[in-house]
Amino acid sequence: MPEGKILVVDDDSLIKDFLKESLSRQNHQVDLASSGDEALEKIRGTEYDIILSDIRMPKMSGMELLKAAGRFSPDAKIMLMTAYGTIDNAVEAMKLGAFDYITKPFSADDIALKIKKALAYKKLEWENRLLRSEIAGKYRFKNVVGKSPQMKKIFEQVEIVADSRSSVLITGESGTGKELIAKAIHYNSPRKEQPFIAINCAALPEGLIESELFGHERGAFTGAIRTTRGKFEQAAGGTLLLDEISEIPSSLQAKLLRVLQEKEFEKVGSDKSIQVDVRIISTSNQDLNELVEKGKFREDLFYRLNVIPIHIPPLRERREDIIPLSEHFLKKFNTDNSRSVEGISEEVFQMFMEYFWPGNVRELENFIERAVVTSKGKVLLPEDFPKGVFLEKGLNKIDVGNSLDDMEKSLILKTLESCGGNKTKAAGILGISTRTLRNKLSEYGIKRE
Fold it and tell me: Which single residue of 67, 283, 334, 390 could bond 178 by disulfide (Cβ 3.0 to 4.6 Å)?
């Protein structure tokens, strides 16, 4: 099988013969053309990986061929050859879309290296295109699991807002799938071929988040040994997800507001403005209205972010989704772990339907993955799941008269007790972060030790 399919275009028969022989030895399939017109005829009927053309030819120059070839073979990498190489020609060729430029005379090794580089780049482009296609397919509406009326309404809303440029604020408890909805918006929008970049505002120290968002110049602060691009630059033309936006420091809120208003920003340590076209999607598991009232979040920034609000209800309020989500995760983790668990017992589904799900969909996913990996049977049974959470009688029953806060507190404390006080293990079972668990315990007046 040939390494690459190459069209050589030159009115010099010695050059053509030399390239045909040397490239064929490297296992490439090589076609020849003596003029631009002849080359276009071949390009119309054949898909080439690389078009290697002389610049100075009668009737149609290599530059003119470069312009015309792009209409018929947009994926081909075009390389131009000339004995009259100048910097101006090189710059013009690159501006017109040439992949590379080589000056005569050149050796067989010179051209082999150029061809290898072009084919590697083309392969990388193809793999990137395939990966984007797979990711986009994953986030098509039909592939996002949810059959409850609440989720169907959200899917309808996502479909409507995907084509817009407006900022979106997605709210909901931890683990409800806020990032999944954000990706569904991006990959069903006109920006789907451009980057989707996410930053967790809660995971970065206050001193680093500005640099992460906007980038910095070399020497801007101690340790800044090189100029870097921030998330806004990385997401140019695409979507930037500001995860847990409520955690962004007050000192940065004004700068973020300016980016949303003016579509420009400066790197840390620079006074040069950079224009940027980015769609902003934010998520929060806190009530931003309440934070605004307390003076902890700028009201004008909130309105800029909350142009289109989407609220994802907790799993306990959309129990119709529990069974389809469980079956989806079963299939996923069977594939990921080369397992062949055939199903989930009715007893487990009954147990799931009675459970409070403080960690929401993420907690369900966590339980199914662990059960698939550790189960020895063909069907998942109650004993395949954590006893401290599911199997204490009456622990997870939803009793009328109890507030959601009381039920959450009871479940967290019972889970922590069943784990011998191990907060990391308890947080994993609950499907929440250790930081969230510590904050909850602090709310209950329980010391961290």
Answer: 283
